[in-house]
Every structure is written in C-alpha cells, then in structure tokens.
Amino acid sequence: MVNPLVQPPTPAGSTTQGLGKHFRMVSIATSISRVTGFVRDMMNAAIFGAGTVSDAYFSALRIPSLLRDLFAEGALSSAFVPTLSKSLQKEDIKETWELISQVFTFLLLSTGLVVGVGIWLSPWMVKLIAPGFLSDQMKFELTVKLTRILFPVLLFVSMAAFWMGCLNAHNKFSISAFAPVAMNLILIGTGAFILIFEPIGQDSNLKNIYIWTWATTFGMAFQWLFQIPSAWNLGGKIRLSWPPKHPGFFEILTLMAPAIFSLSVTQVDLMLNQIFASFLPTGSVSCLNYGNRLMQLPYGVFGVSIATVIYPLISRQAAAQDRTAYQETLSRALEASIFITLPCTLGLWLISLPVCRLAFEYGQFSPESTHLVAQATCMYILGMFAQTGIKILTQAFYPIRKPQWAFWAALINMVTTALLNLAALLLLKDNHLKFLAFPLATSVGAIANFLILYIGLEKYQVRFDLSGISKESLKVIAATLIMGVFTWATLYFLELKTFPGMKIVAVFGPITVGAITYFFAAKFVGCESLSWIISKKRNGNG
Fold first, then answer.
1. Environment class of 467 (CB within 10 Å of its CB; exposed 0-12, middle 13-18, buried 19+)
2. Coil, helix or strand for 403?
3. Which residues contact residue 496 at a Cβ distance below 8 angstroms, ignoring those fewer than 6 apart?
4. Is the pLDDT of residue 421 over 90?
5. Residue 366 class from Cβ within 10 Å (0-12 exposed, 13-18 middle, 19+ buried)?
6. For a Cys-Cys bond, which of 55, 143, 347, 455 suits 285, CB 3.0-4.6 Å?
C-alpha cells in the first residue's frame, strides 16, 4: 500500500503552537453565536411551548437543515477547503480565483434548483420525515407550509458556507464564526416583537409561528450577507463562470460525493429521532430538539471550534506532504477534544435540570416538558466526545484523498441509530422509555462512528500519539472527577436553599465553581492541552 503522505522531518511541536490563538478566537466568536442561539431558543420555547406548532416548526426546519449539511456546510466545506488550500500553495492568484468562481457558479445553480424542487415536493418530504403527523391533518398541513417558507434557507446557508470556506482557507476565522450571530439577533428581535406587541397563547400561535418562520429565513440570508465584505477584501475577483473547467473543481466534486453522506450524519441521526418521535405524544419532537440544542452548546463552542481551526492546517500539511506534522496536529486535536468534552459532559449531566428550568420554563413551556428536555439532554451528551471526534477525524480523510472510509463509517452510524430507534419503537411499551431511547441511540451510533474512523486512519498509516493521548486522558479524567465533586456539592447545597434568583444561581453557581475547580485541577495534574489553549505563542503554521 502506498502511504497517502510522505514523511519529511518536522520539528516536534511546531505544528500546534499557533492553534491556541485561533482556537481562543473561534471559541469566543462561537460562544457568542451559541449563547445568542440559546436566547433565541428560550424565546421560541416561551412563545410556543412544546406542542403542535413547535413540533411543526422544528420538523419543517429539519429538512433544510439536513440538506444544508448534504450540500453546504458539511460536504462543500470539507471538499472545498483542502482543494482551495492546495491551489493557494501551488497556483497563481488568477487560477485560484477562477476555481472559486466556478464553485460559486455551480453552487448557485445547483442549490437554486434544489430549492425550487423542494418547495414543490414539500408535502411528500413531510410525509417522509414526520409520518406520525399524518394522523393530525392540521399539524401536517402546517408543517408543509412552514417547510415551503424555510426551503430558501438552503441557498442562503450554501452561500454562507462557500464564503466561510474561502475565508478559512485564507486563515481568517472570526467573521465566519460570528456570522450566525447576525441570524440569531434577527430572531431575538423578532421574539421580542412578538412578546411585546402580539398576544401569546394557543389562539395566537398560528400567526406568530408564521412571523417566526419568515424571520428564520431572512436571518439565514443575513448570515450569508454578513461575510461578503470580508470576502471582497481577500484580493481576488469573483464572477459567474460556466461551464467549469478548472481541475480543482472536479477534484471537489470527487471529494463531495462521499462527504455528502459522511458529514451529514448528525442531521440524519436527528431526522431519524424525529421520524420515530412523530409517533409519540405531541411535544416529543420539540423536547428532543431542545435537548439536542443544549448538547450543541458546549459541542459547538469547543468541539466545532477545534475542528474548524485544525482543518485548514491539516489541509496545508497534507498538500505539503508533511506526514509528521499532519499526525501531530490530529493527535493534539484529539487531546484537546478530550480535555474539553469530558468535563462538559459530566458538568451538563449534573446541572441539566437547573439549566432547562432557567432556559425554557416560561410562558407556554410546562414543567413536564422541562423534565423531558433535561432527560433528552443527558442521553445526547453521552455521545458528545464521539461527536467531536467525528468532526475532527472525518475531516482528516479528505486532505489525504481517502473519503470512502468516512462514508462507510457514517453509513454504519446511521444504520445503528435507525435500528436502535426502530427496536425502541416496536419493543418498548412505555412512551417515556421510547423517548429516552431515541437520543441514546444517537449517542451509541456516534460512538461506533468514531471508533471506525479511528481504525480507518490507522489503516491508512496515520499514526496517532497514543502514549501522549493516553497520558492526557488520564489527567483529564482525574481533573474532571475533581470538578464533578465540587459541582455536585455546590448544586446540592444550593438546592437546600430558597431565595430570589434561585434559578440563575443554581445554574451559574455550579458552572463557576466547576470551571474554576477544573482549571486548577488541570494545572495541578499537568494537562498539556491547557498549556497550548492559553499559550500566546505564534508561528507560521498557526
């Protein structure tokens, strides 16, 4: 077997010195994005609760969300960034911008066509992704109407993902990381308008959900437009270019084919949960969505940030055929993901109910729904490390031009999740147990996916620093257990008290104590990931 990378000498540690700076910047930007998204979800929950209207909205949003990963943020970014990085290294600027123009033209035409067809086929799509709604004609018809309003989102997020790829390939991360904030602020403003000027309740939900859905579509458009000024400053000129002739364009298509499947696995898993949950009592789809959103908060802030920062770097290292640097970057990224996700998993498990009470238990949202969301969150976060690892390792196959393995790993993930969901639906009698089994199936599928991806990279002779990863993992486990004890003790103490602002203190008190404890425990046991995250060193690789 021919190695996908050759191995020139690389100074140890040189590849990761600049990652800390980019990681901190992207994490801050993503944190703002996720927090504003959390506020957006709080308003959604307060206005609509967890019922027929919210189930219809989240089901309608699932279709363009899935297609977004199929055509845009997942497949396009993973195929586009390594090809563009190689072009930036080996071609003149004119050829690079010709490649960019051809990809832009293709994306505009293809996603525009899919949007038109999708609006026409919306009734059939809703039958596929929410078959349980067919027993409630009003719920089904509302989902179809909302789906048609939301379908243009695919075009807007595709354009946003395209410019994000251009900027990230040029080592510019902040604008793309901040772009979702623009969309969230529009929805927060819309929610404030509804809460102040519109009546709230069952009789007003239909009118309000149309306002909210249109705001979602316009917010996604603004997320794309927000990046354009920075993209114009990259120094090239984009134009409509057809037919495509640049070799890099066809290389992107070759990489996109398996990426369309392998990088949409998260959305497919959520869609599978939704399909089966549509047969459960009304509100189940909404509660699963909110539970996943809570898991996505730490995962998006830290896990996705790690993957975002390293991807252009490993793409350049693969283009330069620097195998040692490539392997070291992946090893350090896995260590960082362990360092971040293990304490987040334990911490969120411990405070899931107080977080859900603070976030959602207002207006139309009932205490019963709050408990369901907290339980769904606990099931989803069991797979948070695996989800982060998938994001990192799946991307690693594309710069070395071995995407097929990631495709099969994703397929096994989806089949595992689907079979476990189906088994729960058919074999479990209690609806509550079925509800818990669906997100647990997602976590099990993710763990299987991660293990298969790791085995695949080893198969292609990408050797991880197992000794370093193992030592770091043991240190992280020790620091996490110490953090868990202090977090639990703080929460236990606060639950014995009753005072104004208890909801807020019950969340931020344990979080603050846990974060401080984990920081000092990590320093005490010598976690290396902490060192490079807080390091301010820079070099050309960063």
1. exposed
2. coil
3. none
4. yes
5. middle
6. 55
- The C-alpha angle with vertex 200 and arms to 194 and 204, in degrees rounded to 5, equals 95
| Matching residue, tokens 């902040």 | 174
Radius of gyration (C-alpha) of the chain in whole angstroms = 23
Query: According to the model, what pLDDT value does residue 373 have?
Result: 94
Cα 286 to Cα 123: distance, rounded to the nearest angstrom: 20
Q: What share of the chain is helix, strand, coil (3-state, %, to 5)?
A: 80, 0, 20
- Taking the C-alpha atoms of residue 289 and residue 434, their distance in angstroms, rounded to an integer, is 15
Tell me whether the omega of the peptide bond preceding residue 312 falls within 30 degrees of 0, making it cis: no
pTM, rounded to two decimals = 0.75
Distance CA 259, CA 218 (A): 28
Spatial neighbors of 514 by CB under 8 A, at least 6 apart, are 343, 347, 483, 484, 486, 487, 490
| DSSP at 499 | -
Least confident of 396-400, 460-464, 470-474: 396-400
Position 540 scores a pLDDT of 39
Chain length of the chain? 542
Which amino acid is residue 39, in one-letter code? Answer: V
Listed in sequence order, the residues at least 6 apart from 34 whose beta carbon sits closer than 8 Å to its beta carbon are 296, 297, 300, 301
Contacts of 339 (CB under 8 A, 6+ apart): 472, 476, 522, 527, 529, 530, 533
- Phi, psi for 264 (deg, rounded to 5): -100, 10
- Convert the pLDDT of each residue in 119-152 to its tens digit: 999 999 999 888 989 989 999 999 999 999 999 9
- DSSP states of 162-181: HHHHHHHHTT--HHHHHHHH
